[in-house]
Specification:
Layout (H helix, E strand, L loop, with lengths): L1 H42 L1
């Protein structure tokens, strides 16, 4: 029973390890795009 319980936890950890960097990259790219838009509007 303990072996069956460890499986999903391990897959969840792998999913978190893969999803967290993707979320960080997406938020950083959106944030940088907003900064570029603000700078562009200020320059214009």
């Amino acid at each position: 029973m303990s072996h069956w319980r460890i499986g999903p936890i391990r897959t969840n950890l792998i999913f978190l390890l893969f999803s967290v960097p993707i979320i960080i990259c997406a938020s950083v790219s959106i944030y940088s795009c907003r900064i570029k838009l603000v700078l562009r509007s200020m320059i214009c």
